[in-house]
Design a protein that fits this description.
By secondary structure, the protein is α/β, with parallel strands linked by helices. The protein contains 16 helices and eight strands.
Length: 395
């Protein structure tokens, strides 16, 4: 296990009606003038918006509003939010929604305290040294941004989708009421579950040795998702299953499962190019890319894929029984993973997400701009990435 530091001060308020505490929590963490940040009309249709506004009014907290966050959040709205915060003197940002809304709020929080272009944080030209405090009310279990240091934004001018991070961006508080996720369509539920699982896989597939504790944590979260996801697809109002998934989503990305090890992140970065170009739902894009990545790296570095098959998917060790090789064991695990994704309604090919093979060179060029390789479990060069993309293109 490698040396590490871990700082995760977010206050979590979990359970039924937890959103009713939002006003007092903002007060607790010093907010007086809030930017209320959200996506489309779903929080108004559900009544959540009215409940939040009442809580702010009851606490005497003034606020300005900025809606309109889209999946794969855009830079244009971030610039608008930064301007609003400065003009109105906002000292706190409340993000009500999923990962896209929270990521956008974090970008606004950092950009509002910076004299230059907030995009400097995403190109690594600048380091985040100050940010407005952020609180969240989560409405979809997926991205894990409610507990993480990270934010991913798509630059509308360049088409680049990339991330930035800092401990300063961890939310001060996050309100997690599983009931708020019960009205999600099955496709969005499944895409969120896939995102959670791949957040774990990006940490799990590591060449760092002697990381048994984080391996076992990763495996526990993955097995929880395998058990609970079909239950909520069958019964969207299964509170207990929703609750387990919601907490798994936070654990998958606050990095408690990833400390002390070199992480991979190739699948996420390869997928980011798909969602930037085609506006694909992130989890759906990951369902296409992650198993394809596994099949490709299996031929180069099978070790962790064998463990993945045996511990997560309960594949019997083929080599020990004399009936096959470690590689065959790993392949059975990948096949079980693909079958699971298909069973919950996720795509597995370019055609299913509207991607086009003619764009593979362009996707790869954008991914590797300024660097020679992608990922760490296996360092992928341009031709490797192209092979992964090609493997999910139908004949």
């Amino acid at each position: 296990m490698d040396n590490f530091t871990f700082y995760a001060p977010t206050y979590f308020d979990f359970g039924r009606n937890a959103e009713e505490h939002v006003g007092s929590l903002i007060r607790r963490f010093g907010g007086r003038k809030v930017l209320l940040h959200y996506g489309g009309g779903s929080i108004k249709k559900s009544g959540l918006y009215d409940k939040v506004v009442k809580c702010l009014d009851d606490e005497g907290i003034s606020y300005g509003e900025l809606g309109g966050v889209k999946p794969n959040p855009r830079s244009g709205l971030v610039y608008e939010g930064i301007e609003m915060c400065r003009d109105e003197g906002c000292d706190f940002i409340l993000a009500v929604g999923g990962g896209s809304t929270i990521d956008s709020a974090k970008a606004i929080a950092a950009g509002s305290c910076y004299d230059g272009d907030f995009w400097d944080f995403y190109t690594k030209k600048a380091v985040i040294e100050k940010a407005l405090p952020v609180g969240t009310i989560l409405t979809i279990a997926a991205a894990g941004s409610e507990g993480s240091t990270n934010t991913v934004i798509t630059n509308e001018t360049t088409g680049v989708k990339t991330g930035a991070g800092s401990d300063l961006l961890r939310p001060k508080f996050s309100i997690l009421n599983p009931e708020l996720t019960c009205t999600l369509p099955p496709y969005q539920t499944a895409a969120g579950a896939t995102d959670i699982m791949i957040h774990i896989c990006e940490r799990y597939f590591s060449n760092t040795e002697e990381v048994e504790i984080t391996d076992r944590l990763c495996e526990a979260v993955l097995k929880t998702m395998i058990h609970e996801t079909p239950r909520v697809i069958e019964d969207p109002h299964n509170y207990e299953a929703r609750a387990n998934i919601m907490w798994a989503g936070m654990l998958a990305h606050n990095n408690v499962c990833g400390v002390g090890r070199v992480q991979d992140w190739a699948s996420h970065h390869i997928e980011h190019e798909l969602s930037a170009l085609y506006d694909v739902t992130h989890g759906a894009g990951l369902a296409v890319i992650a198993p394809a990545w596994m099949r490709y790296v299996l031929q180069i570095n099978p070790h962790k894929l064998v463990q993945f098959a045996e511990r997560v998917w309960d594949v019997l060790p083929q080599a020990e029984s004399g009936s096959g090789t470690d590689e065959e064991t790993a392949l059975l695990g990948i096949e079980k993973f693909e079958a699971f994704l298909k069973s919950i309604g996720m795509p597995l090919s370019f055609a299913e997400i509207g991607a086009d093979a003619k764009d593979i060179d362009r996707l790869t060029e954008k991914l590797l701009a300024g660097k020679e390789t992608e990922g760490n479990y296996v360092k992928l060069k341009a031709e490797d990435v192209k092979c992964i993309y090609r493997s999910v293109c139908e004949d």
